Structure formats: structure tokens, C-alpha cells
Amino acid sequence: MTEKNLSSYEGRQTHIPDLETPKIEVFENVYKGRDYSIEFTIPEFTAICPKTGLPDFGIIEVTYSPNENCIELKSLKEYILAFRNIGIFHENVVNKLVEDLISASKPNYLKVRGNFNPRGGIKTVVTREYKK
């Protein structure tokens, strides 16, 4: 039996898909059936680097085409602020956002782009799209 490498990240992020975060609220789309898109930019996104414990910063861009509901901005802000205390990889930030936004609003289309500040001299940009 070998000793587990203490610097390994295996299993450290497996809780992220089920992580409880503030609820993203929605309101009725009174223009359902119309083809239009909504864009949000969150210029001061902050989370915690799971390796160093230091803050990570980035810009989150959300583009979506609503179906029955639109995303309510105050609840989105509270949801985003919750990440300030979460140790999470950049890739998991974007995937968690996509999953939670789909669950809350069930859009026709959704794209989330995380444009993160360099960490260790490496800049990371993560993008995920969803089409109904």
C-alpha cells in the first residue's frame, strides 16, 4: 500500500457539483417565444485557489437566450458572492455556474466564459455552452 500524495487533488473537488449555493431566482419571461439574448458581465469574480488558499480573480461573462424565465440579477449577485469563500478550480467554477443557471432558468441557450487573472504566470479562460 502506498502513501497518498499529500499534494494530490484527487477527490478534493468531487463535492462541487452538489455544493449548496444561494438560490438563483427567476421571473417570468413575458416575451417567451421571441428569439433574443441577454448578456451579463461580472467583472469582479472572486474565489479561493484550492492549492494556495489565496484569492483568485476573474471576469465571468454569461450569455443566454431565455425560455419561460429570466434570471433575476440580485439573486445572481448573491450567488456569485458565495464563491468568495469556496476553494475551487477555474474549470469547476464555469461548470458549476452552467449547471446552476440551467437548473434555475432552463434557457434555450447558455454560454458562460470565465476569464481568470494569471495564476503562476498562466492565464486561464474556460468556456462552456449549452443548447436546448
Topology:
Blueprint: E1 26-28, E2 38-48, E3 55-65, E4 69-71, H1 73-81, H2 90-105, E5 109-119, E6 122-131
Antiparallel strand pairs: 1-4, 2-3, 3-5, 5-6
How would you explain this protein's 3D organization?
The chain contains 2 helices and 6 strands, in the order E-E-E-E-H-H-E-E. It has helices at residues 73-81, 90-105; strands at residues 26-28, 38-48, 55-65, 69-71, 109-119, 122-131. Strand 2 (38-48) and strand 3 (55-65) form a beta hairpin. The chain is elongated and about 45 Å long.
What's the overall geometry?
Answer: elongated
**Oligomer kind:** single chain
> What's the total helix number?
2
β-sheet strand percentage: 35-45%
Any idea what the radius of gyration is? 16 Å
Which percent range fits the helix content? 10-25%
Structure class: alpha+beta
Name its key features.
132 residues, GTP Cyclohydrolase I, domain 2, disordered N terminus, 2 helices, alpha+beta, four-stranded antiparallel β-sheet, two-stranded antiparallel ribbon, elongated
